[in-house]
Design brief:
This protein is mainly beta. Helix content is 9%, strand content 52%. It has six helices and 28 strands. 47% of the residues are buried. About 4% of the residues have low confidence.
Length: 574
């Protein structure tokens, strides 16, 4: 379905650009936070889907920090430097199961003690996955200039989106509530969407306003001829905020690779990569409303007829799609102990579909003996509302098309005798070149392009690996991966609509066993930590006289995620 925003594009330009309140420039209200724009693929979502640092592979490659740009002869070569496929001297099949454990530590608020449990509130995940498998086989072997040609089909996971974050803060001023946020959003756009049909009911039209629609249907906000207002939450209320953000899914790459060996001195490779994207996000935002001991809930000293107890807002977003790219690589071996590799990855061109739905539930106490005659009030004076939105889908001609950064990889590997290997990789990725190429929202590509150019920069990744054979059939391995900042210095402390993964570091270790002449068994452990920019559940800012100030906001939260991966690979040479 083609989206038509009348004057909302201006709001989106601010909301999606969503720099911290101190940096906002437009005098119109700026709406932001993790609670908003879950109905579109924001430029931050596209960045998140492009943030790959090649952390996964076989147990051998992961134990050595995936520093295989020059080393080669591993299934991960297809996703790093396809020239490495030319280094195989025979056929190879490998399969790598993995267990993952992650925990996110959120700072800046309070411990999460919500009494509302939907069965998925947690800050850690445990799951099983397959980071790598594939087969390589010679298709030509000769004695001339081309010693052999190998062809391989492999799957490598290149990004993992599994994470859960919990955020909470208590006893906030009532002005800083999501009820006020939805009221402000409705008032700011009152003339820009039609909310009444012939029956006088508020309709689900543009999903940008579904939060306000659900808030109205659940009694958080109300409307009259003067505009939108709040009549069930006292001006003397205190508000407890809760938020849980759960993301699931991964980005995997199927690689079809041809590798060429030229007299065991020069190796060439080319690979077609087909990416499979699956990304789900569930966003929960909830509030409890309470009052001081013995304090009567009121609005301007007038007692409430209906007293809102709590409201829960849940959004579900799913992206699915595919992308393609090409990789070319070359590795030189001027000496038996030295390998030098270079590879270039073209941008990946994605086409993704989006689906979105939202729901809200609330509970209200009839403090004034139900003067409006609402039905469904129990004997204890409480009644509940629960409303689901329709399902919004962008697909087919209205899918979201974008391209990820191109990448340049270089590597050096040294062989010390027949017992040790040291390998070093350097990767450069140009995140400022991400581009939205087509979307259901007109002219959004122009806004996104400017954001990428202004906010992001090229990023550096360093991978180190070492292997030591302590026995002819037993190898010990260790590695390290570091991915540098992707944000320009002016934006490192900004608050965006989504938290952005910035620096990432990983420590790796493992060992390998040659069970016989054809079978290997490898083990690896990887520990990683990812830092994110700060986030807020919601905020509204206004600019007056060139000075931007928040008028509604939640607490500011900071998250670090620790991840543990345990991998085993069984390989067969033939």
């Amino acid at each position: 379905m083609k989206r038509i925003f009348i004057s909302v594009v201006a709001t989106l330009a601010l909301t999606i650009a969503a720099v911290s309140p101190a940096k906002a420039q437009d005098p119109k209200p700026d709406f932001g936070g993790t609670m908003i724009n879950n109905d579109i693929a924001t430029w931050l979502d596209l960045y998140d889907m492009s943030f790959t640092s090649h952390n996964f592979g076989t147990a051998r490659s992961m134990a050595m920090g995936n520093a295989f740009t020059a080393l080669g002869a591993d299934m991960v070569s297809s996703s790093l430097n396809p020239a490495g496929v030319g280094m195989y001297v025979g056929g190879d099949f490998s399969f790598s199961p993995m267990m993952s454990f992650s925990k996110s530590r959120t700072e800046g608020g309070d411990p999460y003690y919500s009494s509302f449990d939907y069965g998925w509130f947690d800050d850690h995940t445990e799951r099983f996955a397959i980071p790598s498998f594939g087969v390589v086989s010679p298709i030509y072997m000769g004695t001339g200039g081309v010693t052999n040609i190998n062809f391989g089909i492999s799957y490598n996971r290149i990004a993992d989106f599994n994470q859960e974050r919990l955020m909470a803060s208590y006893d906030n001023d009532v002005v800083n509530s999501m009820a006020n946020y939805f009221c402000e959003l409705a008032n700011a756009n009152r003339g820009d969407f039609i909310f009444d049909d012939d029956s006088g009911r508020l309709l689900f039209g543009d999903p940008h306003f579904w939060g306000s629609v659900l808030a109205y249907k659940n009694g958080l906000i109300n409307v009259d001829d003067q505009g939108w207002f709040i009549d069930r939450i006292g001006t003397n209320a205190l508000v407890d905020h809760y938020s849980a953000v759960q993301t699931k899914g991964s980005l995997g790459e199927w690689a079809f690779t041809a590798g060429f060996n030229i007299v065991d001195k020069l190796y060439l490779g080319i690979s077609l990569g087909i990416q499979d994207l699956n990304y789900k996000r569930r966003t929960y935002s909830g509030e409890n409303y309470h009052y001081g001991e013995g304090e009567q809930p009121n609005i301007s000293d007038k007692p409430l007829d209906y007293e809102m107890q709590y409201a829960n807002y849940i959004q579900n977003t799913r992206y699915s799609g595919a992308g393609h790219n090409f990789k070319i690589g070359v590795t030189a071996r001027p000496f038996n102990w030295l390998r030098i590799g270079v590879a270039y990855h073209t941008p990946t061109y994605y086409s993704i579909d989006l689906s979105y739905s939202a729901e809200m539930n609330s509970e209200t106490f009839s403090a004034g003996d139900n003067p409006d005659g609402y039905t469904g009030i129990g004997p204890n004076g409480y009644f509940e509302d629960y409303v689901e939105s329709p399902l919004w889908e962008d697909y087919g001609a209205y899918s979201w098309d974008f391209r990820s950064p191109s990448r340049l990889l270089t590597g050096v590997a040294l062989t010390i005798g027949r017992r040790a290997i040291i390998s070093v990789d350097y990767e450069r990725s140009w995140y400022q070149t991400i581009r939205l190429q087509d979307s259901p929202i007109e002219q959004l590509d122009v806004i996104y392009k400017q954001n990428y150019k202004d906010i992001f920069k090229g990023s550096n990744t360093l991978r180190l690996g070492a292997e030591l054979y302590i026995l002819p059939a037993v190898a010990l391995r260790a590695g390290y991966i570091w991915s540098g900042k992707t944000l320009r210095s002016d934006y490192e402390h900004a608050i965006f609509t989504r938290p952005i993964p910035t620096e990432q570091s990983l420590l790796t270790a493992g060992f390998g066993l040659h069970l016989n002449k054809t079978t290997t068994l490898d083990f690896a452990y990887q520990y990683g930590q990812t830092h994110y920019t700060a986030e807020q559940i919601f905020y509204v800012t206004e600019t007056v006289g060139g000075i931007t100030e928040p008028v509604i906001e939640s607490a500011v939260f900071n998250t670090k995620t620790d991840r543990h991966h345990a991998v085993v690979t069984i390989g067969f040479r033939f």
